Amino acid sequence: MEPKRIIDISMELSNDTPEWPGDMPFSYELSVTTKQSGSVNVGKLQSSTHIGTHVDAPFHYDDQGIQIHELPLDVYLSKAQVVDVSGLSKIHSSDLEPIEKGITALLLKTVSWKDRSRFPEKWPVFDESIAEWMADHGVRLLGVDVPSVDPETSKELPMHHAMNRHQRFILEGIVLDDVAEGVYQLAALPLKIKGGEGSPVRAILYT
Q1: Among 2, 7, 5, residue whose Cα is nearest residue 179
Q2: What does the pLDDT look like over 192-204, one tens digit per residue?
Q3: Of 64, 70, 91, 99, which has the fewest beta carbons less than 10 angstroms from its beta carbon?
């Protein structure tokens, strides 16, 4: 049996990782060193739950929505298709065909976040029709290579709410720049944060 080929599609988390404007930045430091403890290094981190590559729970934008610890984990272990939609300023459901049978996660490659050390000024708009299309095709998870499925300045969050109405789920901030279109296995499990509205993930594709 051939070994799995693993493609890491996660952003690196460091003190240089850009946060959503006004949100808590990521920071990591050693709070205890081996010299201090005599045996181990122990780290301390602070972060927004929506930094880098992360998932949104419906509770993020709906007070009645399910929380991170309640998410169905099989959604984040799935057969995924990468679709190149680069060059489009608005992405509609009509841009998503054809899709292979049995796909349960759709990963959209916009290549619009060029410099991952800076928060992007803008990214493509995702049309609400995508959520209904996903429900019709049995696709449960949408992954995007930008900070959000809605524009930075949006307060209404139409795409988030459309996804929730159709019981679809959201993965944001993935890195697809060097990933070819095609079908992969996806693993992107959130942390089990009780009452949480979001969680960073280590997202990988493997074949």
Answers
A1: 7
A2: 999 999 999 999 9
A3: 64
